[in-house]
Amino acid sequence: MAKKRRKNPKPLSTGDENIVEDQKKAEVFNKYFSSVNKAERATKKDKILLRKLKQKEKAPGVNLSLFKDCFKLSELSRAIKKLKLRKSPGPDRLYNEMLLHLGLEGKKVLLKLINKTWGTSIIPSALKTALVTPILKKVSQLKMSKATDRST
Questions:
Q1: Phi, psi torsion values for 134, nearest 5 degrees
Q2: Model pLDDT for residues 56-100, shown as the tens digit of each residue
């Protein structure tokens, strides 16, 4: 808990004037600090590098080839092998076991869909849907009777 101020702070004096406002005080401190700071000023090379960095940050796409390359069939197979079994499917009703037993042609079609989504950055609306089923906890009879007694 912050302590209350017992009296008003003293004004800051700079030679010919007294400064009372916090914003003006901050500006005076900032000006003084920048005059005594021993850090070197930014050189032309630093300014150019900073400008290039800001341009890269504002660029709409990522320039790394890692994000431009398509996925390979071997990468898809490796990812499918890592899927956990006996898990609930999504709205598409595809179980992980089904993907695990997918044939070569099925893997190629799936890989084509993944690479198209990756390349265009457009995710099909069907893949944006999720099915959430809440699993309620069991409530004891004692708690149920208390809850019903309060509501009446």
A1: -70, 140
A2: 777 766 556 667 789 999 999 999 999 999 998 888 888 999 999
Give the whole-angstrom CA distance, residue 107 versus residue 73: 7
**Number of separate domains in the chain:** 1
Residue span of the structural domain in which 89 resides: 65-120
* Cα distance between residue 127 and residue 90, in whole Å: 9
25 within some domain:
no
DSSP codes joined into one string, 22-45: HHHHHHHHHHHHHHH--SPPPPHH
Half-sphere exposure of 1 (CA within 13 A, CB side): 2
How is 119-150 classified by DSSP, letter by letter?
HH----GGGG-------PPP--HHHHHHHHHH
pLDDT, tens only, 24-34? 888 888 888 77
The answer to whether residue 85 sits within a structural domain is yes
In a domain, 7, yes or no: no
